[in-house]
Amino acid sequence: MARLLVVDNEPDICALIARHLVRAGHEVLCAHEAATALAEVALHGPPDAAVLDVDMPGVDGYELLERLRTAHPRLPALFLTVLWGADVQTRTEDYDARYVAKPFTAAALCDAVADLLAQPGTPR
Question: At what positions is 4-aspartylphosphate found (predicted)?
Fold first, then answer.
């Protein structure tokens, strides 16, 4: 299916996300911080989409997406966040991305990724 970059500063959460997405048939690159994520993309090439935790120390998910899109402007993104409300929705829309609130079910995560990958113009 798709090659996905998953970035979450909590290793257990990153592994859980990866496990769900691998079961759904995707290839997953995991990183726990922005620098590692950028290095993975430099080494392996751009993913088909990025799944990014919003609230990470140092570089947050929004800033990481900005950096990723410097080289890959059409990279689709799904933000994961414990936050909810108009601010999150507005910021997500500003990045032409989508979001799923934590905690989430495996089905909600996989459905959101499938919808993201089905967007017209998604590089594949």
Answer: 53
